[in-house]
Amino acid sequence: MTDLSVLVFVGIILALIAIYAIRLKAVPMPTSGKVADEIIAYIPSETGTVTDLGSGWGDLAIAIARARPDIEVTGIELSPVPFAISRMRAILAAKPNLSLIRADFRTLDHNPGEVVVCFLDPRLMDDVGDVLSQRMDPGAIVISRAFAIPGWQAFGEIPMKTSSDRLYLYRFGSHKAGITA
Ligand SMILES: C[S@@+](CC[C@H](N)C(=O)[O-])C[C@H]1O[C@@H](n2cnc3c(N)ncnc32)[C@H](O)[C@@H]1O
């Protein structure tokens, strides 16, 4: 490869990342190992299925699959570059309990399971509420890093020890005032 073709290749990759970040209104920020561990601690012990809405480079989904081999973990990511990297990392991690899907979580016909984790953007949280309202089963839990779901009532709003963010915890079915699961 010539220097110019390397430059063109890197430019295309960076442009793709930027175009999807603008289109999806979310930057693919990775989750550090310590932050992932703190989030994982809130996944109940009896959980069998977890979905990461917007799984980015795969950091959180892979960390959950490693820490909890008893859980079937699904990561959903639309941006092609982070998705491709996450697939490579998943192959290297060789975790049979981890699936990564390239899709828009707003339109993918997927049951999100017993726990949903997400770290998105305030502009996306209305969509998250709408999607989960259509697909979640009563009793399922949402763990949202940094951003609340508008109109939902959290049963926990916890300042994180490993970041300046809060974790918003919801239980579907008792997530609106006056409704109980
Ligand atoms: C901050 S990253 C979170 C990464 C990952 N959850 C983690 O903690 O390691 C947010 C990701 O959500 C993705 N995203 C945003 N909207 C999406 C959508 N509608 N469908 C699929 N992925 C989406 C973005 O492309 C971005 O990579």
Task: Outline the structure in words.
This protein has 181 residues and is an alpha/beta fold. It has one domain: Vaccinia Virus protein VP39 (Rossmann fold), CATH 3.40.50. The chain is 35% helix and 19% strand. The chain has helices at residues 3-24, 33-40, 59-67, 80-93, 125-135, and strands spanning 49-53, 72-77, 98-102, 115-118, 141-145, 156-159, 166-171. Strand 1, helix 3 (59-67) and strand 2 (72-77) form a beta-alpha-beta unit. Helix 2 (33-40) packs across helix 3 (59-67). The mean pLDDT is 96. Bound molecules: S-adenosylmethionine (SAM). The site of S-adenosylmethionine has 24 residues, from helix 1, helix 3 and strand 2.
Core attributes:
binds S-adenosylmethionine; Rossmann fold; seven-stranded mixed beta sheet; 181 residues; 5 helices; single chain; 7 strands; globular; alpha/beta
